[in-house]
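Project outcomes to date are best conveyed with an example. Our students and postdoctoral researchers have been running inverse folding experiments weekly, and each run begins with a structure described purely in C-alpha cells. The record below, which covers 140 residues, was selected by the lab manager from last quarter's runs and is presented without edits.
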C-alpha cells in the first residue's frame, strides 16, 4: 500500500509541477513575483515527485503536503484579495487551473494518509494471551 501511495503522490506532484511549468512558459514568466514562484514550484514539485517515487524518506511527503497546501493557499489568495498584487478571477486559465487544484488537493490527501502511523496486525481485544498449549491453571 505504501508503494501505491508513493506512486499517487508522485503522480499528483508531477501533474501540478508540469501545469505550473507550462503556465510559466506560456505567459506567467512575465508576471513579477508570480512568474518566478511558478518556476520554483514546478521545479520543486518535479524533484519531489522523482525522489518520492524512488522511495525517498517520509519527510519528503510532509514537504510535498506543505508545498501543495501553500500552492492552494496562494491560489485562493489570487482569487480573493490578491497574491503579491496579482489577482485573477474564476477558474481561468482553463483547464490548467482545475487540473492543478485537483492535483494539489489529492497531493495533500494522499500525503495525509501516507503519514498516518503504520499499524501492524489487527487488534485482538485481548490484553494477553497464553502461548499455544499453555493454559492458566485455575483452582477447582
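After processing, the design step wrote out the following sequence:
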Amino acid at each position: 500500500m505504501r508503494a501505491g501511495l508513493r506512486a499517487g503522490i508522485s503522480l499528483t506532484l508531477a501533474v501540478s509541477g508540469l501545469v505550473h511549468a507550462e503556465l510559466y512558459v506560456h505567459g506567467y514568466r512575465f508576471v513579477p513575483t508570480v512568474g518566478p514562484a511558478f518556476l520554483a514550484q514546478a521545479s520543486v514539485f518535479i524533484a519531489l515527485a522523482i525522489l518520492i517515487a524512488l522511495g525517498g524518506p517520509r519527510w519528503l511527503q510532509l514537504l510535498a503536503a506543505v508545498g501543495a497546501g501553500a500552492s492552494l493557499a496562494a491560489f485562493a489568495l489570487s482569487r480573493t484579495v490578491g497574491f503579491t498584487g496579482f489577482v485573477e478571477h474564476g477558474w481561468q486559465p482553463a483547464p490548467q487551473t482545475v487540473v492543478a487544484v485537483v492535483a494539489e488537493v489529492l497531493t495533500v490527501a494522499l500525503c495525509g494518509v501516507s503519514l498516518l502511523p503504520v499499524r501492524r496486525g489487527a487488534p485482538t481485544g485481548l490484553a494477553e494471551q497464553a502461548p499455544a498449549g499453555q493454559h492458566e491453571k485455575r483452582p477447582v
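Helices lie at 2-25, 34-53, 59-79, 96-114. The CA atoms of residues 33 and 43 lie 16 Å apart. The training component of this project remains on track.
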